[in-house]
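Re: the pair you flagged

First of the two:
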Amino acid sequence: MQGFAHRLLRSSTIMVFAVTAVHSSIARAGDAATTDLFLGLTPDAAKGYKILLSEPMATTIMKVGDIDRLWTVWEPEEKAKAESADAVERRKMTFERYGWAKRPGDAEPKIPLDYTEDGRGNLVTNCFSCHGGKVAGVTIPGAGNTHVDLTTLSTDLARLRAADAGRDPATVKDSVAPFKTPLNYHRGVTNAVIFAPVFAGLRDPKLGLQFSQHPEMLLHHDMNPPPWWNFKKKTRIYTDAFAPKTPRQLMPFAMSPLFSDEKFHSFEPNFVHIYQYIEELQPPKYPYPIDSTLAERGHALFNKNCSECHGTYGPDGNFPNKVVPLDVVETDGRRFNAIYKERREAANKGWLQYYGEHPVDVESKGYLAQPLDGVWASAPYFHNASAPTLWDVIIPTTFLRSR
């Protein structure tokens, strides 16, 4: 059972944005004045949720009208199915293809939860693209999106643009991100860990040039988008707990090279409220019948064999925030090695880390044994989505994940 406890590690991707749960002050290097992490604001969870859905803080991905046109560049068999469907069914097929979730309250799919309208007929990505998933067919904001497929979406959009320009869409190859890095290799996972240092690097001429022209310098890998509701228990974030919990740690994905520094900095107050929204999220309640006798047996076994790393639960529960060395957890080390020491050292000198007052760890120590609240709703497991069910966590098996 000790192996079970270690194997239950589940990671936070770079898309788990985080901030501290208490108001505190920091001092900038060389500045006697202190800067309030929360900018004098009262963090408001409801406002944070509204900001995510209504305030665009990224660059345009597509037009609203593209949602109902994308099917025209699908593979012949899929295109034929869409063509024979009515408008509502066709849109459902579109949402399914790209892993989009309906917005809560929408009876039929309209604007995906994953995107925010900019008021000019365009859609921009928001955090729910990776952290707004479906559990048992029901949209749950904050759940990891285990259906997201950014590569297929980006490729289809490129094909649509080619068709609009009179070119053959079938000749368009699989798309990559604008900075020449893969978006994802498999459905339901993302290469998001790499996006943050690339975006941050684009604001530094040297790093931006390196990453843009030489993406092979980066250790690309698929990551499993984790749920947000476990963030509140953590003292540090991401799979290896290498980063502090501050409002600015949420912001790398707003670092579009198309934004001026002034525009980017104007977003900071928004992330104070987004932090509070993430901080207050609760795991979804298990909706199925529970065998209380088995549950009591499991509770005792868990506390005996697993709680040392994953904590205890209930009114008196405690989460230890334990980082387990890689040679103990015995899982994929690609995430562990993905963010290079030089990149971390450079980050600690900059604005995101408050000029060294809230630094990232220069070297990771292992993987954080994750909280297990809502574990029933957070499959697949591990940071690389390598275990489809809890059974596969306990009794490791080999399986192939379809595209």
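Second of the two:
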Amino acid sequence: MTKDWFASWFDSPYYHLLYKNRDEEEAEKFILTLVKHLELEANTKVLDLACGKGRHAKTLHKAGLDVLGVDLSPNSIASASEHTTEGLKFAVHDMRETITDQKFKTVFNLFTSFGYFDDNSENLRMLESIHNMLEENGLLVIDFMNANKVIENLVEEEVKIVEQVHFNISRNYDGNHIFKTISFGAEGRNQKHTERVQAIKFNDFESLLSLSKFEILRTFGDFDLNDFSEETSDRLIIIAQKK
């Protein structure tokens, strides 16, 4: 059986190499601003869903929360687990599945970790799972790209060189998904991976969340929590409450 693209690519060392220079300071500032806005009390139990190597989970813990970070990638969780401590745990987990023995006050799904699938049935399955894992009136925070702006400003071709590896990157939009194809030579062979993310816009999220019994409380358009604009915002950040 062929692995989902995200299961194989996110577990590759070259995925982590390509994205190694992400802005850690910006990410930490965003999380701390978000936690303050949500007024989460110390030791509140939260879930970082699709946590990668745990950079957001570590900051959530630093903010005083009791954090479980989960991700489908065993390599990412192995790296994140080096930071395990009281109130900060990690586990391999598919975000479409319910963690049946725990409940959370807030679930965070950050850095465009949504819409990896072929159709909305999988998105609904994921949201139903989140709904099941939340406490009564619990919150869901989704940090997604602003698909409108990404499509309008799509960089079709670029080359990134990281530690002597030349990553040739191409992008296209087919009306449903945004594709990012990454080709490079490594280990004596040519390799190619394609990231495929659904171009989910605000009205799409409204429909998905309503069907999944969530109410949208607030939207933001950037990591400083300024108002969302479909035309100009870099991000679409949604805070929704379990109904």
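Residues 150-195 form one domain.

-B.
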